[in-house]
Design a protein that fits this description.
The complex is a heterodimer of chains A (113) and B (414). With 113 residues, chain A is α+β, with helices and mostly antiparallel strands. Chain A is built from two helices and eight strands. In chain B, strands 1, 2, 8, 9, 10, 11, 17 and 18 form an eight-stranded mixed β-sheet that branches. In chain B, strands 5-6-4-13-14-15-12-16 form an eight-stranded mixed β-sheet, with helices on both faces. In chain B, a hairpin with a 4-residue loop joins strand 13 and strand 14. The chains are: A alpha+beta (113), B alpha/beta (414). Bound molecules: flavin-adenine dinucleotide (FAD) and zinc ion (ZN).
Amino acid sequence: MLTLHCPCCGIQADETELAPGGQAHLTRHGPGSSDEDFHDYLFTRANPRGVHFERWRHAAGCGKWFHAARDTQTLEVFGTYAAQTLAPPQHIRDAITERRPDWTWHASGRATE
Amino acid sequence: MKRYSAFAVAREAARYHLGWERAWAAPEPKAQYDVVIVGAGGHGLATAYYLGKNFGITNVAVIEKGWLGGGNTGRNTTIIRSNYLQDASAAIYEKSRGLYETLSQDLNYNVMFSPRGVMMLAQTQHEIRGYQRTAQANALQGVTTEWIAPARVKELLPIINLDGPRYPVLGALWQARGGTARHDAVAWGYARACSAMGMDILQKCEVTGIRQQGGQVTGVETTRGEIGCTRLGIVVAGHSGVLAEMAGFRLPVESVALQALVSEPIKPCMDVVVMANTVHGYMSQSDKGEMVIGGGADGFNNYTQRGSFHHIEETVRALVETFPMISRLKMLRQWGGIVDMTGDRSPILSKTPLAGCFINCGWGTGGFKAIPGSGWGFAELMAKGHSPLTEAFTLDRFREGRFIDESVAAGVAH
Ligand SMILES: Cc1cc2nc3c(=O)[nH]c(=O)nc-3n(C[C@H](O)[C@H](O)[C@H](O)COP(=O)(O)OP(=O)(O)OC[C@H]3O[C@@H](n4cnc5c(N)ncnc54)[C@H](O)[C@@H]3O)c2cc1C
Ligand SMILES: [Zn+2]
């Protein structure tokens, strides 16, 4: 079973306590944006086989949102971090690079290896 | 290719079964094909088959990174039905169900299509309204379904417990001509027929890159060398995002795990397929006697073909209330497949931003039933550039707001 450390309340939470919230670090394009950006914000999602950043909610715990960095091919968890960030913090990026040396962060919210 | 027949069985029985041929060839890749299909699941193989059969295009390779039918086609619970809500869905799923009826004869391969009837249980007031609406929509679409009362449910399915305290059975949507087929046989039958037409099925050959020149596809890079083509069909289910990335475009698709399990074999006890969508459970009995059970999909991206145990627990817990007799059954095997989910829970059969490159994906939890119809339509799209069966399922329907919303209608897996 997937377990994630909730950075809000400090608990190592079981998957059954958690609600997945989809891809993290999306830019919320709205009025005034191009059709292309609005379309991508609404529908297009990163779907990598490898490093992925997600939003999760500690639904049956403290109820708060947070972010997680995971590998979708191995189910390895690189770390969790606060929801109030626009990009993964340096210590999370370092943890990923340590395990996946070829990995680089793309500002669009996509990670490639 | 020697035809299979009762006579062939007798002939081989008389000579110790030494005369059976290999069902399909194992060729070396050629440098160039007219059409390359990536993915030898049911949808990829059916596409190749109808390209040959309906359009005479046989210089075709189907490229598979593992073994043919080893993806979701060989991992699903084989439910076949066409009682969808939207007209575009009804058209392609009903075409598919119709093709299944004569597929064994058409392919000269027994796919064991068994139109035993599919029953979708209504266990909430919401579902009663939803299914009555679907029955009306189906009547207009020419798809034969009916709303049936609990007494009729019990008559068709004596092992059911109608008045479970949490999930009472309030009626059902019944499609008498739905059913099941043998999943492996569908892949094998199409593969054999494609091979007989001279097409190359290249197994253990992974596509690692897509080559293009001036916005036009020119071929693929694979673990068995470069292979050129003028038209490319990407039909890789859960790996669609990975292939789209190689081709330089992105998709409104996410890949998640969906699981199934089978019990020890028992004597025949139910001869219909049951779906209980409120509790995310569905069940049928295989010809071997195993109870085949499917559950809900996981909520997070995953490529491991392993799902979360608690989903199985939820499914089985709910089914035990509705079918008390399965409570003592031992489960034999459990597995997962990676399904490709779109936002409106409908597939994508479409041209792509890369000229000559087409994609068929997004069948998610419910594409086994669609294999013949999807192959039929997608082959037409690839051969002629348009197909009435696929025209609603384009990639730009999201941009244009033309959703084919089946998430509310189906409510659940497959
Ligand atoms: C547990 C479960 C239960 C299901 N139950 C039902 C059901 O009851 N009814 C129903 O209608 N549907 C059901 N489905 C859905 C159904 O199985 C799928 O929609 C359908 O099989 C998809 O077929 P496909 O040919 O598109 O994909 P697949 O059969 O997955 O074939 C895709 C192929 O592409 C190959 N591939 C991937 N990447 C590459 C690459 N880079 N190079 C070369 N090859 C590659 C894969 O190895 C794979 O063999 C279920 C699915 C699951 C997982
Ligand atoms: Zn918490």
